[in-house]
Amino acid sequence: MRDEEPALALAKADSPVLRSINEDLLVTYVVDAGDQFRFVQHRHLEQEGVSTDELHGIAVSNLERLAEEKLTVREYGPIYVALIGGNFEASLLMIHAMWTHWYAHLVHDTFMVAAPARDVLAFCDASSADGVAELREVIRRVEGGDHRLPPDLYRRVGLEWQAIAYP
């Protein structure tokens, strides 16, 4: 069930910058302040003279650099799990090079991904019935956990992620 009405109304300048990835997922932008994350708000863009597209490019470049330094992908039976420190795993969906170059050799068809929380990202070949079943199990295991995201699978179609509803 999705909320239709916001719980709190903010002035645009004070609202966080959001970007839609698909019908289920939004990107939010944060600055790592060491012991906490601070949301990038529209007023920050105005102060710096940066557009939302420029912010997105900067954020993806920063994430890609972090991934090049820290990303580990481990195989667990028919699936792979991506680890990057516990906060940005789901954000790896944004790094096109990860899916088109770095790990493209791991699939024959295309990718199927589960990202049911910000710190969880698992994937497999979309044509693997065992892999897809295991991804659904990953989603089930994080139910009730912290920093939840929609409990759907995402199939890579071109450069986009198509949501596949979790039954």
Helix-residue proportion: 25-40%
Contiguous uncertain segments of 5+ residues: none
**Overall shape:** globular
Q: From the helix content, strand content and strand pairing, which structural class follows?
A: alpha+beta
Report the β-strand fraction as a percent range.
Answer: 25-35%
| SSE order, one letter for each helix or strand | EEEEHHEEHEEHEE
Roughly what is the average pLDDT, rounded to an integer? 92
Number of helices: 4
> How far is it from the N-terminal to the C-terminal residue, by CA?
13 Å
Lateral strand order in the biggest sheet: 5-6-8-7-9-10
Number of domains: 1
**Rg over CA atoms:** 17 Å
Give a short account of the largest sheet: 6 strands, antiparallel
Q: List how many beta strands DSSP finds.
A: 10
In short:
The chain is an alpha+beta fold and 167 residues long. It has helices at residues 42-48, 52-70, 96-102, 129-141; strands at residues 18-20, 26-28, 30-32, 37-39, 72-76, 79-83, 111-117, 120-125, 153-157, 160-164.
Explained architecture:
With 167 residues, the chain is of the alpha+beta class. The chain has one domain. The chain has helices at 42-48, 52-70, 96-102, 129-141, and strands spanning 18-20, 26-28, 30-32, 37-39, 72-76, 79-83, 111-117, 120-125, 153-157, 160-164. The strands form 3 sheets. Strands 5-6-8-7-9-10 form a 6-stranded antiparallel sheet, covered by helices on one side. Strand 9 and strand 10 form a beta hairpin. The longest helix has 19 residues, at 52-70. It is globular and about 50 Å long. InterPro entries: DUF1444. This is DUF1444 family protein. Pfam families: DUF1444.
